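Archive transcription. Copying these from loose printouts into the bound notebook so they stop getting lost. Printout 1 of 2:
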Amino acid sequence: MDSLARAAAEAAQWRAAGATGILAPPPWRTGGRPAGAAPLDADRSEGGAPVRDEIAEASRRLAAGGLSCHLEMALDRVARGAHPDTASAEWLRPEPLDPRTDPRTPREDLCTRRVVQAPPAAFVQAWAARLRDWSALGVAGYCFRTPQHLAAEIWHELLGALREADAGVRFIAWTPGLTPEELARCAPVPFDWTVSSLAWWDGRADWLAQEHARLSALAPVLAYAGRRRETRWLAAAAVSGEGLILDGPPDAATLGPLAHWRRRTRLPATFGTVGGRTGRATALVRACPGAGGALLALSAEGDPHAAADLSEWAGLLPAGPDDGRGVPPALRPRPGALLAPAGCALWQWTAPAPPGAPVPAAALPGDGRGLLAPRIGIERIEPAVDGGAWPVKRISHETLAVSATVFTDGHARLAANLCWRACDEAGWHEVPMQARGNDRWSAQCRPERIGGHEYRILAWIDVWAGFCAEWRAKFDAGQALGQSLAEGAQWLARLLHYADGAARDEPQWARVRQALDMLQAAADAPPDARLIEALLSAPLAAFLRDAAKPTFAHATAPLRLWVDRPQARYASWYELFPRSQSPVPGRHGTFDDVIARLPDIRRMGFDVLYLPPIHPIGRRDRKGRNNSPEASPEDVGSPYAIGSEAGGHDAVDPRLGTLDDFVRLVDAARRAGLEIALDFAIQCAPDHPWLRRHRDWFSWRPDGSLRHAENPPKQYQDIVNVAFYADAPPWRRKTALWRALREIVRFWIGHGVRIFRVDNPHTKPLPFWQWLIADIHARDPDVVFLAEAFTRPAMMYRLAKAGFTQSYTYFTWRNAAHELDAYFRELSQPPVADFFRPMFFTSTPDINPLYLQRHGRPGFLVRAALAATGSGLWGVYSGFELCEAAALPDGEEHADSEKYEVRQRDWHAPGNIRAEIARLNAIRRANPALQDHRGYLGLPCEAEGVLAYARYSAAQSNVLLVVVNLDPARAIDVQVPLGPIASAENLLTGAAEHWPDCRAHARLHPESPYGIWRLPGLPSHGLPSH
């Protein structure tokens, strides 16, 4: 509001609109300038009355109307000639020149004087006294404009003094338009709220989500909508902010329902946008794993109709069905996928319910032969993994497109449905299939829940469609229809006779009776065109299509579908060793040190924090630095040598903290927008408690010694492996061991962990993994398992089929353009893409790739770009952002490996690539094309050593061009032909680029060896569908 008195007078109007407070400038004297201007006298009004009296009266009136009073002001400036009680001369910046003679002087500075960045103590004392007095009169909070102009320590002193007097007072930092550098100056200040720049957003640009990430790192965000009153902008404010700030009079009819919905809806902290283009709606998403969320789809300026397709945004959405009961009616999605001009639609999800018990499969026709064989053939159902032996994988809200060959004898017309259901549903959801030619049929479904599903094809002879085709052909040929119409009448009469009595009273059956009457009447008169058109009507045909299902119906055996949460397909991982996170040199890190690093990791755009084993480390045969077989008393050992007198896999290393400390880390990470992933390593130190309790779980040599782990010529004396089967016929599995390992996973699930990175799963039996993962998923289907399986392709893929959600890949060793192109194509297309989700880690604690060793900082940029744009899943091991590449001679092992020692780092050391990583992750979040491993198309590029490719979303509405120089030490000019496309948006610079020759032009050099552009459409040769 522009006046506190006016706000008090309009209190009832604002309250009716759902407002909870009023924000207005103090009624101080400004010397005739507008309200809210810098004060000439901060203690007197324009009429000379004490400011405190007017504040007291306005606060009283607002409180009576159910509204709190908040005052907004800028403390870094005063009016020229300000009263000495308002500003002392020593507080103000010196002015060596008359500002009126300098054309660069901002207009406002002609009327004001600026306060120095760090004014003396008297400044804080004076303002603290004044604001404490106003708070005592009923002011609930203060909004400070231009907070970046005062030093952080000044704000600390002022806010601390005010909170000491009134712990309930709240402080808002006015942050619209502030640069990242200006926000960084405000970061140490304990403001309660920040304010977004939503009022200036065009409904498409990516910067809104990037700003939200920066602001939320300081404090929760209030969305400033300015004077925008359209429903879509108010809804955008409600979804993007923890509260709304509006200018001007409210519209109670629009604002009221939104304010009511937002007050009782707790949304996750994580916020993202996907800008709508080429007729697509823009999405604003608030979602968090396991916590539900909301999505607002809106039409940006100039879009007459915008398509809102949830499957396009599946990588960002929470699992589960839409729970729109609490959504304001005006915002509920309309039938169909199009928004009205300047319209919007709101979806809301609550936390998903656990799955129920599986329902036995319905009885289906068998594989009989001869007289019992089905008349309808259904073949080549796609997708199907190994003919249906293993589940196809999708994520919630992602479209499953199914096709099949369906045929029968003679000229009969067929109908077919795609039938699907969750494992705990008794009935089937059915979607009509469409004939695509040459007996191929297709349909799509979009499961919303996570967990086990199944789908099948149901086909039958569509008798009525057959009659209609026959009548049309004979009528057009001028042939007699008498007997054919009589047969149709006979069939309809029989259908009506067997129909359920109650159903016969429904309007659809009235249409059937009308058709029967027409057919019977046609026996006495030749048919005319009007009769044929009436009999061939689409509504009648659609109803009789389903009514005729029993006619030679044939259903295939169900195929399995596993639906994961979105983080199974799209996530950005950051790996660190907790013991290396202490800021104090030489001190062993703790979980609290990891908590302190969470904001820094989140600022780089990561959403999963992966921890190697956190359990007690064995003392017996402990390894020294660089895997030395001799360890000194100070050596910390390898965290993969699990177990000591302090406990085993269900304990934490005491040097890291306690189990309660770990749970605090899990909770803190969730609040920061990160999810903890924990290493599940099935290996033990020689002094693991299991060695004393379960000697039979391990392998022993003939001389009675314990067999340690080895991968000749490598020896791991500090690790012993369990034996999953008895060592003599009949080689039964060791059931107690299998159950103990399952209970370890359940233990950590009970302490908040829902993602497990599994160490070397290819060295353990496949039946064990199939049993364990199925058992865990039966109760907790949202748990993610990442396979660290650097092994042969057959085993790598079989682990994915057996249940692993994600897998490490050969990406680490694919360096040449042809190698990368072939591998990206293999992973992005069926059959692999239907069950295997690739994780692209740029390096690991075990692997220091030769490419990174040889190419320095430009090589790190190249591998980051390839990993971040090549798959929906990518990750970095801490130190990658600092371009660490020191290696032991003649190999891929890190020098001074963190597996065997504590390594502390300067996370902002010169030459780091933190900003580039943050930009890549921001681009990933704003573009669905990068939230999946599918949708890859290699593009021609004549430049040697350059890889060019397009990434595109399932609906092909989001298309990116990526060009990477794989020899980054050289500078090179690159051209990529794009058919008719002559313009694009450079996602690294934000600039629009125009290419009259329809060829992308890029200058790649060591500081920027890759480019990423968002294209307005598809290349001329088109893109294949998923």
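Printout 2 of 2:
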Amino acid sequence: MKKKLLFLPFAICLFTCVSFAQTLAPGAPGKDAQWASAGKQGIGTSTTLESKIWFTLQGGALTEVYYPDVTVANVHKLEFVVVNPKTKKVETETGDANHQIKVLRPDSLTFQQINTAKSGAWKITKTYTTDVERDSVLIDVKFEPKNKDLNLYVYYDPSLGNTGMGDSAKLGLGFTENFEKGGKSSYLHIENSFVDADKAVIKEWTNGYYQVSDGLEQLRQYGKIVTQYSEATNGNVAQLAKIEKPSRFTIILSFADNYIRAKQTTSDSKNKGFVKCLAEYEKGWSDYVKTLRQVAPKYQAQFNMAAMVLKAQEDKTVRGANVASLTIPWGGGVNANGDVGGGYHLIWSRDLYHVVTAYMALGDLAAANRALNFLFNIQQKPDGSFPQNSQIDGKGGWGSLQLDEVAYPLIMAYQLKRFDKKTYENHVKRAADFLVKTGPKTPQERWEEKSGYSPSTIAAEIAGLVCAADIAKKNGDEASATIYLATADDWARNVDRWTATTTGKYGDGNYYLRLTENGTPDAGEKTVLNNNAGTFLESEIVDAGFLELVRLGIKPPDDPLIVKSLKIIDEKIKVNTPNGEAFYRYNNDGYGEMDDGRRWNWDGKYTGKGRLWALLSGERGQFEIAECGMRNAELKNNDRRPKTEDRCLSKAKARLDAMLNFANEGLMIPEQVWDKADVPKNIDKQFIPELKFGEGTGSATPLAWSMAQFIRLAVNLQEGRNIDTPAVVYNRFVKNGIPGQTGFNISSPDPNSLATLKAGEVFTVKGQAAPNSIIAAVLDDQRQSVKVSGDGKFSVTMKMSASETVGYLAIQTADGATFISPNKIGGSKKEEILSAEIIEKVKNSKQSPLIEGNKTIFIYRGAAKRVQLAGDFTGWQPRGAVLQDVGENLKAAIMEFPSTARIEYKFIIDENWIPDPMNPNKIDNGVGSENSFFTMPEYKPTSWDKDSDTFLDNTDFKSEILGGIRLVQTYVPSECVKNACPVLYFQDGTDYIKRSKAVQVQQSLVKANKIKPFIMVFVDPKERTKEYWASDDYAKFLATEIVPAIDAKYNTIKSRDGRAVLGASLGGITSVWVGLKYPEVFLRIGGQSSSFWIDNERVVKELSKLDASKTKFRFYFDDGGFEGVDDSRRVNVMLRGKGFPVTYREEFTGHNWTSWGDRLADAFIALWKN
């Protein structure tokens, strides 16, 4: 580390100089440097830009002083020491006094510290201000000893340039020559104040190394300064001076880039005087507060303070750079010998977003725009992203990436109406493109600890992309707008399946998680929490980040999954404190003090225990505002929603009351709040304030995010609505419902051809989609938007960029359904060369494929120019799985599959589709004529389809509704002749009988006492696609013709509880439709590989309207891992969220009757449960 040799003089005046020897203090470099507790009780700076100095107050002392910007701390502590010369008793303000702090005016950052000795021997009162024209802090000091013989010393521990080591100090008397090295100096001046006759003078002083040779060590050993050291260099230095006649005096602490300027600054502030400096300082703040809105009197003082703190934490050189907090939580590390990375005095895009929303609530659009300008012009990276945090130059910081921080500037741009072309092209477009390319999985979520799928991060991403799309449209970029909206819609449709479990251990098992690493919340995966907090199942860790889905306008507040998850939050991470309800970030959090009072990171290994976060009460309050009947209110730009009654808002007001109560005496709202009545007795007071249940800890206080949340909640309560909810997002998703999913088919080129394109090549994408839809294509900087022709065809021609990239193709249909498809383009070789060992195995093999563990080697012998694979794993599309030449008339390819998979496939030999000639396993499985198939080592077929005798009652049923004759086959177990039995109605009846052996499966399950007997009715279609396209006529036919006929002929349970309906593929979606159209007839609904995609998910939209409190259903769904399971997973978690019992099964299989037969036993057991 580069050493800083910085000059830190005391300026001594108003007394006769004495000579002294130039002596260097011993004990370099001193003990480890530390920062003070982050639990600040006050902060201050002027409203002027000329004065670039900030002070903080904590524990009765002046703590970090920031200069020349808000990211550079230069002081550890300045306090007074009182010594009884007779008894040699030493008392410090920080360690031996009771502390009180007062806010002297409700319209100014004017603080007064009153420190009263626990011994009762003295009282010190200090009032703080800055010089509005200079870099000086002025402290008016009044010393009131009970015993006039007590001696008063000032103790100054500087830590220039964000580090406590590498500093140098000298004391200058009279005309003694002084010097400094480095880029910063501080100058401390003590003089008499006001009209006191007595003069405050200095006669004893010394420099030294912290807790080794500094003056305080001498006082504790001797009761006075016995050795004066003129300097202490290159270490953790501290200064001490005795003040003679210390009744009332002023301390001036000034900073500059060298000693001469620092001394001149002090002299100029001295000439102005404390009284005038304070008057100018307070007028600046008073004038600002006059511009603020009025809220309820109960909250006004805190509201004003929150607004002043946000303004104070903006840098005065780099405008718009608002730090998160002028603190270093718990000292930031084991020591402060080096730069600890800025503590919280850095700029986070996320924290700045919350500050901007507060500025907008205050009506300070100029400050809000300055903040966005900083993000766009200084912090944004060339690739469009934003760093985790940064210094004021946009550099430095902690080095990670959090995608909500990329999204928030897009929301800010929309809400601040930054629609100009320059902002769009240079900033909005780049950030939105980065989100599309990188999301939704984030390298870190908002708690800055874990990678994965986070509800709060995804909420920000969705909202940011919708806002970006609106700005893109305003700039005529329809292609980008379509890409952004299709991506946002896709993530809005899938956020629940990525982040909500249906198999959890809390409640009914269905709730949002804090985060999933791979977007598979039901996979039973484990997560290792930060801060040595332990290892848990992902489904065990919850936070309330999902509330951002409501605040940002993606979900209504009465969404069943939201409501259900809130109950888990209240059960797991809510605490009732004496000051109101508060919440942990998540259960088992490790970021906070230990139970015994040790600070976070006490061991240098980031160990701790998380406490309650004040701002989370405000987030809950905003949810409760949204909950107050706003779901159906139309939200438009600059429109006010109807105000809700105070009674409805009482819960949200209680949250504001809690935040009010969490603030300390100085009205600073903390990051964290102590969470229990038990208070440790041996806390480390260097880093932690006195801990009280429901009050702040040694975490960042004040936290800008907390202060901003208080302002936002107060204003939103006054408005009766959440004004920070982006209108364009709310209207798209809550008002109009999440758009359905559509799709398109690409006929050329295939993925292999795309992947082998070279720089400069021109290529054309051709395909089919819904007529009159809009197709958007994006490839790096190329943007195209085309309309699908009336016959459903489209083509887009683009030029390959210079390197490997990802292209995006999106669609929006006339009715608003969307879909997006990323495609890897370029950067790949045409083939991966097989190893000599594999080639030798291929040459010796007599069959195909060869299976070794998870690897499968496909082999083709014969003359052919090109052999390609298509099957379950390619969606039965020629997607570039090409066999390579390994010998004369011999080709092979190697692929990996899950160990439990069953797979059907074909070879495409020079465009001719055939089964694998070397594979004896072939089957006509109802999909694609005869296919080859193989199974992986751990695949387990059903064991319930054993052959047995069956008798079916066949009927040619004439339908008046559909017209013509339908074959209906009925299986009646012997037990159902005398006893009334439930009935299961099958679509594609003959296939279920012959291909999936449905009757045999029932018989085996009954014999094993897994289920009770039931009647089976197998109905065959006549025009399958037409009748099974979720047809109202077919539903009417089944419910009003077939069901009455069966009830009349057989001994059935004639109620909806005794009826179930089941089908596969289109038959599955039709079964769902029948149940939805005739809920009075069917209670139990099953679908295997259901075609939820039809008509842009028309049936899914109807399912989303269900209310479990009004209509009861039981659902069974399954799907094959090679089919595209996203829609089935979404439907599962959606219905579970609504409170319906749903059983969902998934295996690595394809779209065929063998697969459905394998899962048929699961379907029967699930449908007839209860």
